[in-house]
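Sequence only, no structure available. Ideas?
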Amino acid sequence: MGKTADLTAVQKAIIDTLKREGKTQKEISERIGCSQSAVSRHLSGKSVGRKKCGKKRCTTRRGDRTLRKIVEKERFQTLGDLRKQWTESGVETSRATVHRRVLLNQKQRQKRLTWATEKQHWTVAQWSKVLFSDESKFCMSFGNQGARVWRKTGEKEMPKCLKSSVKYPQSVMVWGAMSAAGVGPLCFIKGRVNAASYQEILEHFMLPSAEKLYGDEDFVFQHDLAPAHSAKTTGKWFTDHGITVLNWPANSPDLNPIENLWDIVKKKLRDARPNTDELKAAIEASWASITPQQCHRLITSMPRCIEAVISAKGFPTKY
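Reply:
I predicted one. Tokens follow.
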């Protein structure tokens, strides 16, 4: 016999019709194949639908608006500061929830979720075929990287989103690649990266990385959606070289395991505190100290990372 929560709209309509015809609850239940108690609860107005699945949303739309006002009032705040002020306004939640509410729009979250669903059944062996890449900036001011600025697209030049700092801090931009087998050679980038200069990096650093880590085996290349990466001429470069590029969702550094390697290198630099002349050498030494075992552990975490994205419905994850 069906339960109350199992009654369909059609069944409920039939119950109402039979009741108007003078049928008893027992006759109605036998007629439509459900329990008598289900009929009784529907007629008494106590019938309820099936309880929704999934975790209940922990904040209200009003609470989300309060968080946006907190962010807009002072853009340079840590997650801890934002959480504290949000809690004081009456919304008790976690740092992860604060992070999810501030970053990523609905379209981006949906694309991340779709991407993760497509990769849900990828094995560690498949992820081991991916050569992950990324650029990262290393500054001399390792001791204080400053607070994150929370802003939306188009708000880059707003006065509230700007903060005074050292005008010309010593820094270098670095490109690197990694796979389950280890890391490739670093490229120190001078000036801005456009499509032409990026293709030079691919030619002189990505291909040697692939040769070192994969030899003659096939591999899939990963990079994000930076303009130089998604340029038509860059796409033609990959086609001409017969290299498959992994499709990638926007604003998704948490999906790229190489981000963890950048964090390792930067932590070592903070501890060593090299001077200007030693900076590049220190970066190279720290990068070279990363072991294949560390890289392999990061790649084995990819299936868990994908599941985390799906569980979070496309929101950022701890990875």
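The chain has a mean pLDDT of 84.
Hope that gets you unstuck.
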